TrEMBL record:
Species annotation: Nocardia mangyaensis
Domain of life from the UniProt record: Bacteria
Coiled-coil regions listed in the entry: none
Record protein name field: TetR family transcriptional regulator
Keyword terms: DNA-binding, Transcription, Transcription regulation
Positions of the DNA-binding region: 41-60
């Protein structure tokens, strides 16, 4: 479930439409991270991005529509999966990227806000599920390759494995408040790898 966002230095398509979208989504992400979904106002976002509010209302219509597009953009900008040659190392790379994302003040707050919004808004929830579907599909070959190499049993469910890697880290973000650090990431990866080898995730 890797989703480290490659905002700095990202290569985006050119053109005015792309520049408008980039500016609006950057401001929307800042507002979400700083104040949460309830304070996401399209007119304020338009002003912050230097864009006419009519343009923002016409393209995104509602705060939920803006969040949905932000999640699409985040999926598009996410870093590709690791391919280290071993299951444990691939899952460790995955866990470390998740931990890096969630421990980042801006990105961690942004995910808290989006997850909270998804709990009460169907459009946001669908966009959030699509975001994770995209990331799980990107990383599924790590598990599929491990099956081919004989590291994992035939029938292992990649989605279940990758969810097991990230779940403890999200628990720390959303529930316990325990540190989300490299040690936590590495333990999560080791636990998921051991469970995978044991056949826990064979469907």
């Amino acid at each position: 479930m890797e989703h480290d966002i490659a905002w700095p230095g990202s290569v985006r398509p050119g053109g005015r439409t792309a520049r408008v979208r980039e500016a609006v989504l950057e401001v929307a992400g800042d507002v979400l991270a700083d104040r949460g979904f309830a304070q996401l106002d399209l007119a304020e976002v338009a002003a912050g991005a230097g864009v006419g509010k009519t343009t923002v209302y016409r393209r995104w219509r509602t705060p939920a529509g803006l969040v949905a597009d932000l999640l699409v953009d985040m999926a598009e900008q996410s870093l590709p999966r690791a391919d280290t040659g071993t299951l444990l190392d691939d899952l460790t790379a995955n866990a470390r990227l998740v931990a890096k994302t969630l421990a980042d003040p801006r990105q961690g707050n942004l995910f808290r806000a989006v997850i909270a919004a998804a709990a009460g808004d169907e459009l946001t929830a669908t966009a959030l599920h699509t975001f994770y579907d995209t990331r799980l599909a990107e990383w599924a070959p790590c598990v599929e390759d491990a099956v081919v190499r004989g590291e994992a049993p035939v029938g292992t469910d990649p989605r279940a494995v990758l969810s097991a890697v990230s779940a403890p880290l999200y628990y720390r973000l959303l529930a316990s408040g325990d540190p989300i650090d490299q040690d936590a990431a590495d333990r999560s990866a080791r636990a998921a790898a051991l469970a995978t080898v044991a056949g826990t995730f064979v469907s």
